[in-house]
Design a protein that fits this description.
Bound molecules: nicotinamide-adenine-dinucleotide
Radius of gyration: 22 Å
Largest sheet: 7 strands, mixed
Helix content: 40-55%
Strand order of the largest sheet: 15-16-17-14-13-18-19
Strand content: 15-25%
Number of strands: 21
Shape: globular
Structural class: alpha/beta
CATH superfamily of the largest domain: Aldehyde Dehydrogenase, Chain A, domain 1
Number of helices: 15
């Protein structure tokens, strides 16, 4: 059993002032696998002071120096691949398939930021004026548990590219994964104080970061509820904020699609990261005339979904991260039944033989109305809602009838038709004919899915302030 009892401040593993202990529980079998001592306000202040001091010199570094640092970070993360994947499976319950992709994304963060940096213009002309893009200052990075190290790597890579220093507060449930990534960054030889981490609670360490005057910007990934609290707190010192929040993404299957291909893809897609994915397509929009066919294929597909041990190669859905998250998903399954949706497959309780972990049955509701809470609220588990539409116009209207706007998906055998529909969807990212990811394209939400963008040049700009020098 591992005990993590330090913060990482100013390039050193540092003793904590905080004394509260949080147990780390394997979600597949409820065994205690470790514990983490949580930092407090004093620990956080120390980390912020180190980042502030380091910013004085790091903000003046040249692009070539920062590229070398990013290359070193990439190499250091690459070396620990197996451990990073195994720890994520054990601590978080992510499937091997998902954790392998998450690891590739960690390494990719550094590669893509190097690529972005090579062509990025830190000095531009606007009118007759010279505009300099200046690093914003110390960045507070606050991350969730559902792909913890991918978020940390992406945000750190962008901060380093910009010349910013950081204080990271990861989810306390990810402490073993965090410890490994800190060891990687430590080995990469980042200048002291550029990267600091304090494990702790959102209400303590997170709150200190949000309110501290020496933090210039917050880059947050997490729920819309927490994002709103952070935005409110940040305004007092006029911090810049990037908020990557929740989603309830529509997946429109147009009537000319190949349903035998599109529906299985839609079902597996909804269960990505065991359903604990902000971009999961959890509202499946299908033509009313095809509903029976869709129900049949969706049910057959769900019965093939392997729920179970996340370490095994062929598992599609692992456990929910915590008992709390399991209970939350169960409450939505109950709610779906109460609201009058038809349960097509799955349902309440644990799958047979998996009673000792936080496992949820692969569940699909059909005949869901878009105004039901199971269609409007983020469930964050393997629960898909099938909603029917009469025509293309109604499909678009249902897709947009949500407080969220993170991602959307459109499938059609006619790509130009799918593109036309995609253009009318209110979401930060719309994928046509399949699940796609472009790490150089901006990523972020419309409406209550967030503020700002990550990745590539758009993401880098969020860590910079334009300064006009008029001579
Ligand atoms: P959460 O909002 O509960 O917590 C996220 C982080 O915020 C944690 O580190 C938490 O400790 C911290 N926090 C909590 N209260 C805080 C406060 N008052 N001040 C400062 N920090 C505080 O989210 P979660 O349950 O860990 O993660 C799941 C959520 O994240 C889902 O809603 C999901 O959609 C969202 N998410 C969004 C994206 C995206 O890119 N848009 C990606 C992944 C997850």
């Amino acid at each position: 059993m591992k005990r993590i009892d330090n913060a990482y401040i100013n390039g050193k593993f540092t003793e904590l002032q905080g004394v509260e202990v949080f147990d780390l529980i394997n979600p597949s079998n409820h065994e205690k696998i470790g514990e983490v001592v949580l930092g407090n306000e004093t620990d956080t202040k120390k980390a912020i002071a180190a980042a502030k001091e380091a910013f004085k010199t790091f903000s003046k570094t040249k692009v070539e120096e920062r590229i070398t640092i990013l290359e070193n970070l990439k190499k250091a993360v690459e070396k620990r691949g197996d451990e990073l994947i195994e720890t994520m499976i054990m601590e978080y319950g992510g499937t091997r398939q998902f954790c392998t992709v998450a690891f590739q994304n960690m390494v990719g963060s550094f590669e893509h930021m190097i690529e972005t940096l090579r062509s990025f213009e830190f000095e531009r002309k606007a009118g007759n004026t010279l505009v300099q893009m200046i690093p914003v200052g110390v960045v507070g990075i606050i991350t969730p548990w559902n792909s913890s190290n991918s978020f940390i790597c992406n945000k750190l890579a962008t901060a380093v590219a910009a010349g910013c220093t950081v204080v990271v507060k990861p989810s306390e449930m990810s402490a073993l994964q965090t410890q490994l990534i800190i060891e990687c960054f430590h080995e990469a030889g980042l200048p002291e104080g550029v990267f600091n981490v304090v494990n702790g609670l959102g209400s303590v360490v997170g709150n200190e970061i949000v309110n501290h005057p020496d933090i210039a910007k917050i880059s947050f990934t997490g729920s819309t509820h927490t994002g709103k609290m952070i935005a409110k707190g940040a305004v007092d010192s006029m911090k810049r904020v990037t908020l990557e929040l929740g989603g309830k993404s529509p997946n429109i299957i147009l009537d000319d699609a190949d349903f035998n291909q599109a529906i299985p893809q839609a079902v597996f897609g909804a269960y990505m990261n065991s359903g604990q994915a902000c971009i999961a397509p959890t509202r499946l929009l299908v033509p009313q005339s095809k509903l029976e066919e869709v129900n049949r294929i969706a049910r057959e597909t769900a019965l093939q979904v392997v729920v179970g041990n996340p370490a095994s190669e062929n598992t599609n859905v692992g456990p929910m991260v915590s008992e709390k998250q399991y209970e939350r998903v169960q409450s939505y399954i109950k709610l779906g039944l109460e609201e009058g949706a038809d349960l097509l497959v799955g349902g309440s309780g644990k799958p047979e033989g998996l009673e000792s972990g936080n496992f949820v049955k692969a569940t699909i509701f059909t005949n869901v109305r878009n105004d039901m809470r199971i269609a409007q609220e983020e469930i964050f588990g393997p629960v898909l809602s099938i909603i029917s539409y009469e025509n293309e116009e109604e499909a678009i209207s249902i897709a947009n009838d949500t407080p969220y706007g993170l991602a959307a998906y459109v499938t059609s055998s006619d790509e130009s038709r799918a593109f036309r529909v995609a253009s009318q969807i209110e979401a930060g990212r719309v994928c046509v004919n399949g699940f796609k990811h472009d790490p150089l394209a901006p990523f972020g939400g419309f409406k209550q899915s967030g503020i700002g963008r990550e990745f590539g040049a758009f993401g880098l700009e969020e860590y910079l302030e334009p300064k006009s020098i008029l001579v």
